[in-house]
């Protein structure tokens, strides 16, 4: 299978690329960094990737490139401004929407039969409880509005162009090589250094999905002709944030004191966020393989080894 990937050097994208290479697929990845030194998550496999120099702002340069690659699937994971500080930037509504629409059209020009896009739980907005793909979407950030708009535009694009479009609403993915500003990596590195950041009471019920399970779901969807449209990408289970944090602490040092209750809940705090994966399971047969405990153990082990905090 020939694959074209945007966002290949990011957390989820790099895990996807590694899995594709492991299974013997041909990977073409668009990146600004054409040297392995600038792609730390993929440095050891970089020589096996067909690098396409470019960025989301110059997708016009792909008009002659993508048809020559003739990909069997386009994985569009690239996105500008994923950090919390950029969630309400106007660029979300202009640049990212335009980039994704251009990528869809390039997919059409190249006659690529499958397009996979990654959306977000942010499409649902301030929701509570177990969410199905038919739950109301009321996004409150520019990021969420952009993702939700594209979920509708991409699926309609697929209908009118006879392209199979799979749009994933990704919940909280975690694992090795995650963005260090995210909650779990920040918590792990803090605890490994013997400190603990201030915490809320931790009563929130949260749905965490190990990154390898997320990648497995994406490949299962590509392989199944029944997978078409919008799907939640989640574990389908939730645990209290307190349980998650205590599990991380216990795996590092059970004697460390956790400061639960030092932070108040935000006014817009979501107390129960969980994705129903019935639709994805029915279309692909996919099930998460990693328990939260197994995923956390692997993740913590990677941080211990990477940052030399006393081994795994």
Characterization of this structure:
This protein is α/β, with parallel strands linked by helices. The protein has two domains: 2-173 and 208-233, NAD(P)-binding Rossmann-like Domain (Rossmann fold, 3-Layer(aba) Sandwich), CATH 3.40.50; 176-206 and 237-271 and 280-306, Alpha-Beta Complex (UDP-galactose 4-epimerase, domain 1). It is built from nine helices and 13 strands. It has helices at residues 11-22, 66-69, 90-109, 142-161, 183-192, 211-223, 241-252, 278-284, 292-306, and strands at 2-6, 26-31, 50-53, 73-76, 114-120, 129-131, 164-170, 172-174, 205-206, 208-210, 229-233, 239-240, 272-275. The strands form three sheets. It has a seven-stranded parallel sheet with strand order 3-2-1-4-5-7-11, with helices on both faces. A four-stranded mixed sheet has the order 6-13-9-12. Strands 8-10 form a two-stranded parallel ribbon. Helix 1 (11-22) links the parallel strand 1 and strand 2 (26-31). Helix 1 (11-22) crosses helix 6 and helix 3 packs parallel to helix 4 (142-161). The longest helix has 20 residues, at 90-109. It is globular and about 60 Å long.
